[in-house]
Structure formats: structure tokens, C-alpha cells
Amino acid sequence: MKLHDLAPFPLVYLATPYSKYPHGIALAFREAARLAARLMVGGVRVYSPIVHTHPMAVYGKISPLAHEIWLPFDEAIMSKADALLVARLESWKASKGIAYEIDFFNRENKPIFYINPETLEVDNGRQDGRDSAGAEQDARIV
Q1: Helices in 8-80 by DSSP H: which ranges?
Q2: Can you give the pTM of this predicted structure?
Q3: Residue 135 DSSP label
């Protein structure tokens, strides 16, 4: 798949590691912002919860790990998003947030894609008919 294959989706939710990012949350924000910008330039209408809320946490003096504040907002946006794009950044598999987002999109029967943040190559996570979480693939994941 190519990046332009994501362009038809009105809103793509970008999942990136944050609290488990081994280089810290400031660099996790920077990597998410850099990737989101490249996606926008590539024609993808992308929303990144990290890019949106990290500055609010920093400048609003809100704990960036206050899930009781961030999760309800994230869920509202996830319910509006048309697809999930998981960035395969370092530690993405260890991220509880990304696992939660994948589960949410699976429950909502919305498409899930994966992206290499360096090459911008996109795939649907299929490996031997299964997605990256080991669940059976179905027709909704393109």
C-alpha cells in the first residue's frame, strides 16, 4: 500500500507510543509531530492525540499521564475517526495506549493500518492471515 491509499478516509487517527517511549515523552511528541506533518503533506487528514494533547499537558500544567483526563477525549475522537494508523516507532508494541486504540478500532469494526515512520510504507498488519495482534483478519481491514 502507498500513503495515498489513506487519502480517501475523512479522518485517520494516528497511534504512536508516548509514556513507554524509551527516549522520553518530549521526544515521543516530536516524533509524532514529525510523522503527522509528513502524513498531512502526503494528503492524509490525520489526527494525533499526542501532537494535540502534549502541548496542553506541558503548558496547561496537566499531568501527561492523567488518563482520567485524556482518555474520554481520545475516545470521542476515536469514535469519529474513520481509520487507525499505527506508527511502528520504537516501543510501539509495548504501548498500552496503542493496544487500547487497536482494541477500540477492532470493536468498532474500523480499518487498521500500520506505517513505517521512516519510509511511510503502509500495510494492514497481515501476517499469515492474522493481524499483528494475532487476531483473525476479516474483510474490514483493507
Answers
A1: 25-41, 49-60, 67-80
A2: 0.87
A3: P
